[in-house]
Each structure stands twice: as structure tokens, then as C-alpha cells.
């Protein structure tokens, strides 16, 4: 007697949705009797799919972790969501490409058309799969070290191309603007450091353990590290406004904002170029004082002069135009 493959796969899909499913529930959903449900479970076990039997009043069947991933049953929307995430997400690379190809290959024609319509309408501000993808082995090793508070040895290539090997006590992993970062302590220099994962060639767990700080906030550490990274210009401002107001134009990854007692805030940032700052400061529409550098004062004055000329030019045009 041939096996009813469609119903066996439907059983697998029900089990993959999570939790314990009673025999009565499964029988009702599959429109078969309870004896047939048990026979279907036997078919799944024959395929090495780890189905567990749970005893008791609320017992039934559930999926258990196995030595390999079983066939994955996805709805139409779930399959499209997985593919779009693989194609457009920051975790691209060989593994993502092969996974996307496997899912795409088994899509029904109607879903393939929907996917093509989505991808055909997308525009990217940078190429998908831009060079910010960490190696899967590096990501997994660091995640394990973060979880178990273990030191790691990493091989790192800095932005200027210099290679180094160092020991890191990793506090956490942070995804920011399409890139992955690890933040932690560098015991050799006694300072906290932040590293881009795509610049780490290897990560190897070392013996021992460490105690992370109690007030740990990895995301904030990464943002502060980005805002205070060494650049050509060091800028200090005083702005009359709250931190929330200032953050609308100067996010935490760009500037460090410290509220003062008089309704003003001190803002510090490090940038390679100053030419974009006057426009940002003007868009805040808040009183501000440039403490340094002098070059920024000149750029702000130049912008103010251009705006005044534009206003005057508009007024002359209005006077010259016919009523």
C-alpha cells in the first residue's frame, strides 16, 4: 500500500510549528484516525526525522533536535520572507547564496513570479552582499565566547590594511547599519575595543574565562566607539536643546551628547570632513556655539551668507515679477 506522502508532509508541517501536538488534534487536522497518525509518525522516524513521543494527560508528539535538519515545510508567505531575507539581508555570502538557490529551486511557479516582482522593484543604496559579511565560523565562535565568557584569539585587518593578532574578552555582538561588530576588552592594553566582524579572519576560543562588567550595554558601547573613533577633525559644540532633540540629526553612532545643567548640551564628534555639519546644525533649528575647530565656524558663516543671498535674490525676483 503506497504511503500517503502529502499527509505525512502535512504532519511534519504541523510538528514544525512548535509545541506538543496531541494525537487527537493531529488526527482532526489530517482528517484521519489516531491509528493512522501513529503510522505517519513511524514514516517520519524511518526518514530519521526526530519525532518524540510525550507521555501524560497532555502528551502527544513533538519534534526534537536531530543530527541534521529535517525537510522544512514553509507556507507561501514564509518561503518568500526567507528568500527576500537571504537576498537582501546583511548576512550574505556563499552560504546565503546556496541556501537561497535551494529554496528558489523548489518554489512553485506562482511564487517564483511573486519573488521576481519583489526583487525587480528593489533598488539598493549599496550592492547587496557588500563587503561587510562576517565569516560564519567567526560569527559562531564569537557568539559562543560571548555566551560562555571565554577569551578568544582573533586575526584582524584594520582599515589601513595592517594585520594584527590579539586576545579579546568579547562582551557582545551588535548589528548596525548593515555591519556586524564585536565589542569587548583587550587585556593587552587594558581598554575596551570594537572590531568589525568582516575584518576578522579567524576567531579561536582560548582556555579560561572572564567576568564581563555588570553595567554591560554592548549596543551603546559600539555606538560610542563609532562616535569617538579617531578621525581628521575633533568637533566640540554646545547646543541649546535636549538629548532627544539633538539625536534627531546627530545619532549616537555619530556624536556623544552630554546634557548640561542650564538647558544646553555638550556635543562631541570626530569626522573626516566638516562640510556637511553646517547644514545639519541649521536643520536642528536650535541655538548653538562652535567651540572648536575654527574652520567649522567659517563654514557655518559661509552657509549663513549663502542663505541670506538666496533670500535677498528671491525678494528681488518677487519685486521684478509682474503682479
* Structure class: alpha+beta
Q: What kind of sheet is the major sheet?
A: 5 strands, antiparallel
The spatial strand order of the largest sheet comes to 6-5-4-3-7
N- to C-terminal separation? 92 Å
Give the SSE order as H and E letters: HHHEEHHHHEEEEEHEHEEHEH
Proportion of residues in helical segments? 40-55%
Contiguous helical run count: 11
Q: Tell me what portion of residues adopts beta-strand conformation.
A: 15-25%
Mean pLDDT: 82
The value of Rg in angstroms is 29 Å
Show unreliable segments: 319-323
> What kind of assembly state do the chains in view correspond to?
single chain
Number of strands: 11
Shape: elongated
Question: What features would you describe in this structure?
Answer:
- There is one protein chain.
- The protein is an alpha+beta fold and 323 residues long.
- Mean pLDDT is 82; it is low at 319-323.
- A 5-stranded antiparallel sheet has the order 6-5-4-3-7. Strands 9-10-8-11 form a 4-stranded antiparallel sheet. It has a two-stranded antiparallel sheet with strand order 1-2.
- A hairpin with a 5-residue loop joins strand 3 and strand 4 (163-176).
- The longest helix has 27 residues, at 294-320.
- Helix 4 packs parallel to helix 6 (109-120).
- It contains 11 helices and 11 strands.
